[in-house]
Write a structure and sequence with these properties.
alpha/beta; Uracil-DNA Glycosylase, subunit E; 181 residues; 5-stranded mixed β-sheet; 5 strands
Length: 181
C-alpha cells in the first residue's frame, strides 16, 4: 500500500497534473472535476481516502474487485478510463473559475471526439453545469451529447457529498453500467 503523502507533499502538489487513464474504444470514460491535492501528490485519480469512486465502481459491478487508486491502469482492461474537466490540482474544486470549467468543457469535447468512448460519465453535476452551460442538468442520462457520445451525470463521489450514501452512489453507477453494456 502506498504511503500517505506528507503535509509538505500535499502543498507541493498544488497545480500539478496527472495523466489520464484513456484509450480508444472505452465503454465508459469517467470525467472528474479536477484532481485534488492527494491525487496530485500520489499521481492517482480519486486517491484521497474517503473518496467513494473506487468502491462505487466495484459495488456497481464495473470491476470484479475493489481496485486501489494505484491500480488505475487496470481500468483499461475493463474498457474504462478516467480524465478530468480541469487538469490542475487544487485543494478544493471551488478554487476553479467558471472560465476554467468552460475551457475544460471544450478540451473534454475534443478528447471525447478523439477517443470515442461509448459513454461519457461526468462525476460532478455542478462542474458539468458550468462547463457545458446546462444549469438544470440532473443526475442520470442527458439529452445532450458531447461529440456525438451520450452523457451520464454521476454524483460527486467525494466523502463531502454526504447526502449520496455509498449504496445510492453504487446504484447510480450500476444504472450507467447497465446502459453501457
Amino acid at each position: 500500500m502506498p504511503q500517505r503523502p506528507t503535509r509538505e507533499q500535499l502543498a507541493a502538489a498544488h497545480g500539478r497534473t496527472i495523466d489520464d487513464v484513456i484509450a480508444p474504444g472505452l465503454r465508459v470514460l469517467f470525467c472528474g472535476i479536477n484532481p485534488g491535492l492527494y491525487s496530485g501528490a500520489t499521481g492517482y485519480h480519486f486517491a484521497r481516502p474517503g473518496n467513494r469512486f473506487w468502491p462505487a465502481l466495484h459495488r456497481s459491478g464495473f470491476t470484479p474487485r475493489l481496485l486501489a487508486p494505484s491500480e488505475q491502469a487496470e481500468l483499461l482492461g475493463f474498457r474504462l478510463g478516467i480524465t478530468n474537466l480541469v487538469a490542475r490540482t487544487t485543494a478544493r474544486a471551488d478554487e476553479l473559475t467558471a472560465e476554467e470549467l468552460r475551457a475544460g468543457g471544450i478540451d473534454l469535447t475534443r478528447k471525447v471526439a478523439r477517443y470515442r468512448p461509448g459513454w461519457l460519465a461526468v462525476v460532478g453535476i455542478t462542474a458539468y453545469r458550468a462547463a457545458f452551460g446546462r444549469p438544470k442538468a440532473v443526475v442520470g442520462p442527458q439529452e445532450e451529447q458531447v461529440s456525438g457520445v451520450p452523457v451520464w451525470l454521476l454524483p460527486n463521489p467525494s466523502g463531502l457529498n454526504a447526502h449520496w450514501t455509498p449504496a445510492k452512489l453504487a446504484e447510480e453507477f450500476a444504472r450507467l453500467r447497465a446502459a453501457a453494456r
